[in-house]
Amino acid sequence: MNSVLLANDPDRLSVILPAIDKRRFRETVADFGDPALDIPRFDCVVPFTLDDYAHLRRRRDRHRLNCLMPQTALIEILDDKYRCNRLLTALGFDGHIPAMDERVTAWPIIYKKKQDSTGRHSFLCFCEADLRVLETSTLPEEYFKQQYVAGNVEYATHMLAIGGRVIYHSTVKYCFGAKYYVKGERCPAPPPEFCDCPCYGQLSAIIDRLSYTGTCCFNYKMVAEGMRLFEINPRFGHSLGFDINRYLTAYLDALAGAAPDTRSLTTRVA
Predict the structure, then answer these.
(1) Do both 190 and 221 map to the same domain?
(2) What is the torsional sign of CA 143, 160, 251, 263?
């Protein structure tokens, strides 16, 4: 049985704890900011948030932790949706990024805060008047404009990687009742449905170019021309908790140096 240390995040734990296989994993939940916590004794350490990363990196014993984390500089870029899009554009992935700023040529658009979570500060604008109202009530330098991608199906693909090599992935889709919405606080997501990743090649190529290590979550829609990427969250996404056992198995295998099994959940079940 493997010992697993989970960060104390009630929202994610509400999904993970009922699903975790207690015959295979002995889980402990703790505050990663506790300096008395003996973290190196755990076989696997799973941070959930950017604050968890910061706590772990401040520890003197951080080099002895069984944990996969992204580089701090990359976290800072990906956590800023505007900087993330600019980086991906510079790396040649601009065809997957909805147009931004002066390249936006049609309504509706989405007015996004550069650093945001759960869609709290992202707003749909159907005309110039909608945008002007928002611009007068916000700090424009903290926001950017982006072409809105219509459609009622949105995807989240979770990946775990080491040095740009994907060692685990799973994908869920959300089927909304409308094609115009902002998923999050004002429009809660419907129950996720596991599915095969419709654009694994493109997403794994991004992971490779970023030389990414750790867990991340891609949010996107599919259109006739292919994937349209909204963000890369450099952390453990909520719906990943539904596949916690396969994720932990891949995580432990990676730490032990085993070869990865990158088949999707639905492919494995089939």
Answers:
(1) yes
(2) positive
Do 228 and 214 lie in a common domain?
Answer: yes
Number of domains present in the structure of the chain: 3
Tokens of 61: 């014993």
pTM, entire model: 0.92
Q: Which domain holds residue 45?
A: 2-67
E strands of 35-82, at which residues?
44-46
d(CA 170, CA 173): 10
CA distance 44 to 4: 5
Nearest-CA neighbor of 178 among 199, 198, 148?
148
Assign 264 to helix, strand or coil.
coil
DSSP 138-189: S-GGGEEEEE----SEEEEEEEEEETTEEEEEEEEEEE-S-SS---SSSSPP
Q: Answer yes or no: do 178 and 258 share one domain.
A: yes
Both 169 and 221 in one domain: the answer is yes
CB 1 within 8 A of CB 38: no
For the stretch 181-225, pLDDT in tens is: 999 888 888 999 999 999 999 999 999 999 999 999 999 999 999
Rounded CA separation 25/100 (Å): 45
Q: Indicate the DSSP class of residue 190.
A: P
Q: Are residues 62 and 178 in the same domain?
A: no
- The answer to whether residues 237 and 144 touch, using CB atoms and an 8 Å cutoff, is no
Distance CA 154, CA 137 (A): 29
Helix, strand, coil proportions of the chain in percent (round to 5)? 35, 25, 40
User: Over the stretch 122-133, which tens digit does the pLDDT of each residue have?
Assistant: 999 999 999 999
* Whether residue 119 sits in one domain with residue 143: yes
